[in-house]
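Side project, low priority. Logging it here so it doesn't get lost.
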Amino acid sequence: MARARIDERWGNIITSLVADNPNISARKVWKQLDIENLNRPDPIPTKHPSKRTVDERVNKLREPENKEQLEMHRRVYFPETFLNKEVPMESVPYVMELMRHFPYRGRPDGSTRPTIRQADWFYTLSMSAPSSPIHARTTMAIMLSMNDVAPEEQKSRWVNRMAEAWLWYEPWDKPEDFHANQEISPAIIRMDLYKQYVDSLPFDPPYLHQDTPSNEELREMGATLEQWNVFKIHQKEQETEKEKEKRNRKNA
């Protein structure tokens, strides 16, 4: 009888623990699961996986082809991450701001601590757009870090162009906007220009999220739910075509 698949939220915790602690044993990972779960804003209600399941998952994660996946899941810790020069020491105030905000984001994977890649992007965006809202910077950092580790054929030009436009047009309220003697707020003008530009881009973010983003995240990235649904339908059609091609080659 086939064993039931584990809740992938547990799988994400296992991956993060192995990524953060290269020499950790599978037994220690198994013991740490409940502690990690208690630190989540929404603890997983299902029972954690068995020792055997954890052992299998840990061994698989340590296979060479999963090196990139572990790299993507490595999280920020103070002061270790900064002392190891994985993120610049001068970024500490910005990364701490991200760490305070991050647990409230409600990430699909349930993570409560940003990864090193996310922190690095957040620092870059904070230096480039210091007046931008923290929630928007966080979303942009998550999107860009995910696109970083996507396979070359899956990297999304949409994410890069959209992030570039976000920095270019600055579609948020800035302090000087409140003193502008104009009938229409400069922020509204910038937001309209940004939206027009993003609407003109082909929507192809294959590596944006493991799950459907929330409406709030869609608004922050300048996309609509309709655009996302069209993308998902297109993605499903592509997967179906690939399956057909695979079956045809097998039957040939």
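Brief comment: Residues 75-251 form one domain.
Revisit when time allows.
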